[in-house]
Amino acid sequence: MTREAEALLLPLDGGSLPDRSVIGGKAWSIARMRALGLPVPPAFVITTACCRAYLAAGQAFPDGLMDAVRGALAEIEAATGRRFGQGPQALLLSVRSGAAISMPGMMDTVLNLGISDATEAALAAETGDARFARDTHRRFLEMYGRIVLKAAVPDLDPAAAPADWRAAVAKAAGREVPDDPWVQLEAAIRAVFDSWDGRRARRYRAHHGIPDDLGTAVTIQAMVFGNADQESGTGVLFSRNPLTGAAEPYGEFLACAQGEDVVSGAHTPEPLSAMADHHPALHEELLQAAAVLERENGDVQDIEFTVERGRLFLLQSRSAKRAARAAVNIAVDMVHEGRITAAQALDRISAEQVRQLLRPRLKPGADGQAELLCSGEAASPGVGAGLVVTDSDRAEELSEQDQEVVLVRPSTSPDDVHGMIVAKAVVTAQGGSTSHAAVVSRALGVPCVVGCGADALAGLEDREITVDGDKGRIYAGRLAIEAPDIRADTHLRQLQDWAVEAVGMQVIPLDAAPADALDLDGQPGGEDAETATLLLRGVRAAKGGVFGTDAGVQAAVDAGVELIAVPQVLPALLAAHAARHGGVDSAGAGAGGDQTDE
Questions:
Q1: Where is each PEP-utilising enzyme mobile domain found (predicted)?
Q2: How far apart are CA 513 and CA 491, in angstroms?
Q3: Can you give the pTM of this predicted structure?
C-alpha cells in the first residue's frame, strides 16, 4: 500500500496528484485545477481509507484524525490570513463528500461551517454588510440541522433573529447546534462519512453497479461567498451542451447566491449569458478555464464556480453527466476534432445509452391535437408516459405493481432518487437544467422537464400524461410514438462503422439471420448469462431477443460465437466491444460522467 493510500488526509495544493481512489473525484479535480494555476480556494482532503476505517470501527475516527485536521487547517489559515471560527477575519469552511466514482447528489455537504453569533458579527464588521453575514448564518443553521442533526428543519424566516433560528432547529432536532466551530467540524465530517451508507447512496450504488466498499473522501475547503453582494454569484458551466452535445458553452448563473441554491432546484437561475451581460471579463475568464480543463482532461467538463465580490473561483470540475444523445455526439465530434481516438469514443458510449436513443419517440404530428398541459425547460431528452404521482415512495410501490409512473415534484432532492429510478419521466415545478432533478435524470436516462411552475402542475396527480423531454412539454393522456431510424443519424452511423471495425464478432439484423443460427428467443439471458453461455458452447451463429441485453451479448462473446442476429445492431456491437475491452470508460458512461457530486 502506498504512503498516500495509508494517509489520514492530504493537502490539495497542486504539488502532487494522488489517485482518485484515495481522495475521490472532487478532491482530485481541486488538486488538478491548482496544478494548472486556476483560481481555486485552498483545501485539503480526508481520504477514502479513513472513511473505510471509520465505518469498520463502528463509526469511530481513526487515531489522530482530528489532530491531523487541525494541522491541515492551520495551513489554510496561513494561506488565507483568516482564523477558523474567530474574528476579526473569520475563516468559514465547506465540508463536502467525494467518492472515487461520482454519485451526484447522493451524499452530504455542509457549507458556511464555523459561523456563530460572534463570527457573524466579525463577518458583518469586515464586509460592512450585516445582511450578508446574517444570510450566511441562516444558511448554515438550516443545512447543519438537516444534514448533521438529521432533522426536518423548516425553512427559517430570513427576518427572524439567530436565537429564533437556533431555537427552531433545536425544537426540530431535539438538540442544539453547537457554537464551538471544532465541534461543528467533527460532527460534519461524521455526517459525510455516514452518508456513504445512507439509504439513497446505497440504492444509487446498487442501480449503477458501484461497489459498497469504496468509501467517500471528505474535502474541507475555505468558503468563498456567492451571496456576498450583487457583484457576487454562483453557477455551473458545461464546456459543451450536456443535452445535445453541441460544441458550445452551456450553463446557468444565479446572482447573489450560493451553489446549493442552483443545484437544489429551489431557485430558477438565469442562463449563462446573464453572467456575460453583467460580468463580461469574468465570463471570458471562465470560458478560458473551461477550454483548458476540457483539453487537459480530454472530455466535456462540468464546472462549479463562484464569483465573490468580482473575483472568480473554481470549486470543482469533472467529466459531465450528459444525455445519451449528447454522449454520442460528443464522442464522435471529439474524434473528428482529433481530441480522442475512435477506440476511445467506443469506450465512452454504452449499449444502454444507444438503446435510449433508439427508444420510441413522439410520432410526427402526434402532439398537434393533444392537450398541452404545461411546459418548462427540457432537462433530459426522451419521451415518457404514465400515471402522475407526487411522492417517491408511492412511485416505487406502483412500479413494483407494474404500473408506469411519472414523478411530479416541486423539486427533487437526493431523497427522491428511488422514485426517479422507477419513473418513466420526471417533472418539477422549480429548478433549471443544472438542478438535482435535471442532473440525476440525465444520469438515469429518464426524460425530464423542469421549471414548469407550481400552478401548472397543480391537480395532475393520478392523471395519465406524456412528457416530451426533448421539447419540454407535458401533454394529457398517452400520445402515439414511433421508433427512430438509425440510418438518418450521422453520428450513430459513424459510431456503428467504428464498432463494426473494432468488434471481432459479426452482428447482423435479426431478419438477416442465417438458416443454421441457433434460435435463443425465450432462452435464458439477462441475469442468467452463465446458462446462456452453456447453451452457446460450440455454436457458430445464434439469433434471438436474448442478445438485446448486455449479458446475452457477453454470453456470446464468452462462448466464442462468430455471428449473432439481434433486434438492434449498434447496441449489441457496443455490448460486444465492452465485453472484449472491460466495460465502458467512466468518463463517458452512465449518460455521461458527473454533477453535484457525491
A1: 403-472
A2: 26
A3: 0.76
Nearest of 544, 550, 580 to residue 563 by alpha carbon: 544
When pLDDT is cut at 50, 70 and 90, the band that residue 434 belongs to is confident
Cα gap 104→189, rounded to integer Å:
18
User: What are the CA-CA distances from residue 568 to residues 338, 469, 512, 561, 586 (Å)?
Assistant: 29, 23, 12, 17, 24
DSSP 268: -
Range(s) within the chain of domains with CATH label 3.30.470.20: 225-320
446 to each of 227, 357, 533, how far by Cα in Å? 33, 11, 31
Cα distance between residue 135 and residue 149, in whole Å: 20
What mean pLDDT do residues 149-158 have?
Answer: 93
Beta bridge partners of 355: none
Distances (CA, A) of 434 to 283, 339, 488, 501: 18, 26, 30, 37
Half-sphere exposure of 136 (CA within 13 A, CB side): 33
- Residue 379 is inside which H or E element, if any? strand 377-380
Query: In 42-184, at which residue ranges do the beta strands (DSSP E only) sit?
Result: 43-46, 83-84, 90-91, 93-99, 109-113
Q: In whole angstroms, how far apart are CA 139 and each of 142, 205, 462, 538?
A: 5, 29, 36, 65
Which grid cell is 584? 465502458
What tens digit of pLDDT does each residue of 176-217 get? Answer: 999 999 999 999 999 999 999 888 888 888 887 888 899 999
For residue 523, give the DSSP letter: S
Residue 21 has pLDDT above 80, yes or no: yes
Residues 377-392 as b/e (b if ≥16 CB within 10 A, e otherwise) read: bbbbbbbbbbbbbbeb
| Cell (9 digits) for 581 | 475491452
**Sequence-separated (6 or more) residues with CB below 8 Å from residue 431:** 264, 265, 266, 267, 268, 379, 411, 437, 438, 450, 451
CATH architecture, domain 225-320: 2-Layer Sandwich (3.30)
- 447 Cβ contact partners less than 8 Å away, ≥ 6 residues apart: 380, 381, 382, 383, 384, 424, 425, 426, 441, 467, 468, 469, 470
Q: How many whole angstroms separate alpha carbon 155 and alpha carbon 89?
A: 28
Contact of 184 with 207, CB cutoff 8 Å: no
Contact in structure between 364 and 345 (CB atoms under 8 Å): no
Cα–Cα dist 21/18, whole Å: 8
* Cβ partners under 8 Å of residue 245, min gap 6: 322, 325, 326, 327, 328, 329, 330, 333
Cell (9 digits) for 93 = 469552511
The CATH number of 361-482 is 3.50.30.10
CATH of region 1-223:
3.30.1490.20
CATH 3.30.1490.20 range(s) for the chain read: 1-223
What is the dihedral angle through the alpha carbons of 329, 334, 335, 338, rounded to the nearest 10 degrees? Answer: 160
Place of cell 392523471: 463
Cα dihedral angle (592, 250, 345, 355), rounded to 10 degrees?
A: 50
Provide the pLDDT confidence category of residue 3 given band limits of 50, 70 and 90: low
At 215-258, the pLDDT tens digits run 999 999 999 998 888 888 999 999 999 999 999 999 999 887 87
